[in-house]
Amino acid sequence: MATALRPYRLIDRCQAGKRSIGGHLPMIWAQTRITSDKIRSVELLFREQAVSFDHTRQMLLISVVEDGSMIRLWVCVPEIEMLTSYYGFSLCTRADLPLAPTLVAGYPEQFGRIFQG
Question: pTM, whole model, 2 decimals?
């Protein structure tokens, strides 16, 4: 079961608020485990948020298929407040990310920088 989101920010690139680093804003990661029939609703939510709020093209939604019909999802967003829409997700760090995930939605360039580069 996912733990509740805590009111603090886990930053994967620095610990300095919203300061841009190399043109990139600090991003927040969260994860959950869902059944495959629920992935579409999370993907639609993510795509709506990305169009509205991701002007730096850094948001990602990634996955790894686990046993049977279970999928582990990770979402990367610029604002902690955005995570309230992702029911059941809990904060995590970059160290918690999988080695070889699949890009569900987001920007391939950012995905490549983090996971292939």
Answer: 0.78
